[in-house]
Amino acid sequence: MIARIAAELGPWAWWVLGIVLLILEVLMPGVFLVWIGVAAIITGALSLLLWEVGWWIWQVQWLVFAALSIAAVLVGRRLVLSNAQRTDEPFLNQRARSLVGRTATLDQPITEGRGRIRLDDTVWSVQGPDLPTGTRVRVVASSGRDLTVEPV
């Protein structure tokens, strides 16, 4: 059935495939199908030009489509990665990592390597050397929800 439809559409089958892939990209975005859709449309344009040529058989068309798909994905990936914007808040969604370098006062003493500090409106679990309540500490690292501190 698909072979019959492709034979009836001729070179336009590649255009239909390209448009279907672009529509699928809109329905389930991931910036991947768009490049394969572009490759299908380019293959369709080549098919319109070369349809009457004897060597432009379906096997050659599929090879051209495969090569264009790989090239389009690589070029598209490079375009997307080169447009990545630098931000002035690199730890926006990594709150614990954004606290490294800040100082605070211990709310609870560090005993057996564990204690608590308050930074802004949050109480954080900390690891570090045993220290009494009220000691000023600096956050030197974060791992998950725990902060590592050292005395200032």
UniProtKB/TrEMBL annotation:
Instruction: Cite the InterPro entries for this sequence.
Output: Membrane_assoc_protease, NA-bd_OB-fold, NfeD-like_C
List the keywords (alphabetical): Membrane, Transmembrane, Transmembrane helix
Write one Pfam family the protein is assigned to. Answer: NfeD
Q: Where in the cell is it found?
A: Membrane
Question: Domain of life, per the record?
Answer: Bacteria
Principal localization reads: membrane
Transmembrane stretches, start-end: 12-43, 55-76
Tell me the ranges covered by the NfeD-like C-terminal domain, including all copies.
Answer: 98-151
How does the protein associate with the membrane? Multi-pass membrane protein
Protein name in the entry: NfeD family protein
- Which organism's genome codes for this protein? Mycoplana ramosa (Mycoplana bullata)
